[in-house]
Amino acid sequence: MTKQTDNFWHQRFLQDSYFYGTQPNDFLKAQAHVLPKGGRVLSIGEGEGRNAVFLAEQGFEVTALDAAQSGLDKVQRLATERGVTVNTLCVDLNDYVFEPQQWDAIISIFCHLPPALRTRVHQGVAQALKANGVYLLEAYVPKQLQYGTGGPKSLDLLYQASSLKQDLQGLDFLLLEEIEREIYEGDGHHGLSAVVQLIAKKTPNP
Asked: Mind giving me the DSSP string for 10-43?
């Protein structure tokens, strides 16, 4: 992420409508039960709040992290409309420090980062999870460029199961697969898509 990309997202989220809608990501909704119940959850690259607010509605203590203040303003707006509380943190992931053993779960839904930053963030994720903490991710893979139904246009920003497995050494993978599925999320994601889905757990040392 750069100042230029941060500004891109800030401008995109300034519109009144929610670019990715207000309903949670399907994968997150289906798998939320694997997150430690009632735990502290960090959502990186949260955007406009659809996933953070959903988790808050399920009883989690949620912090939404994003570099675009306009998106976080909409997080608070949506949380107020839904009658829940979400903490917000406006920071670029280049500058964010992952403190050890702080989170029961961390989620990343279509938060696409360049390779070096992605690796550093994932190393931070592994450190920042508490024992038995869970990392949940969905992202587009290179095949998505054939579909053009959402996501980055740059190959460098797309993820693969193999690179995620390398990044997250030390975590136990409960799910790691590349699949094709229909995604309809506001104006931003619309149609058959190629994604990687990941659920990984930090197992306590014996």
From this structure: HHHHTSSS-TT-SSPPHHHHHHGGGSPTT-EEEE
| Per-residue model confidence as pLDDT tens digits over 63-95 | 999 999 999 999 999 999 999 999 999 999 999
Closest CA to 90 of 167, 13, 188, 187: 13
- Give the residue from 132, 75, 145, 67 showing the smallest Cα distance to 106: 132
- Determine the Cα–Cα distance for residues 111 and 90; give it in Å rounded to an integer: 15
DSSP 156: G
- Residue 104: closest CA among 36, 24, 23, 13: 36
pLDDT(58) > 80: yes
Give yes or no for residue 10 having a pLDDT over 70. no
HSE-CB at 147 with a 13 A cutoff on CA atoms is 20
Residue boundaries of the structural domains of the chain: 3-201
For β-strands 189-201 and 129-140, DSSP reports them as antiparallel
Phi, then psi, of 163 in degrees rounded to 5 = -70, -35
Q: Where are the beta strands (DSSP E) in the chain?
A: 40-44, 61-66, 87-90, 103-109, 129-140, 172-185, 189-201
**pLDDT number for residue 206:** 64
Task: Tell which CATH architecture fits domain 3-201.
Answer: 3-Layer(aba) Sandwich (3.40)
DSSP character at residue 67: S
User: Would you say 82 and 108 are in contact if contact means Cβ atoms under 8 Å apart?
Assistant: no
Please name the residue that has the structure tokens 């990044």.
167
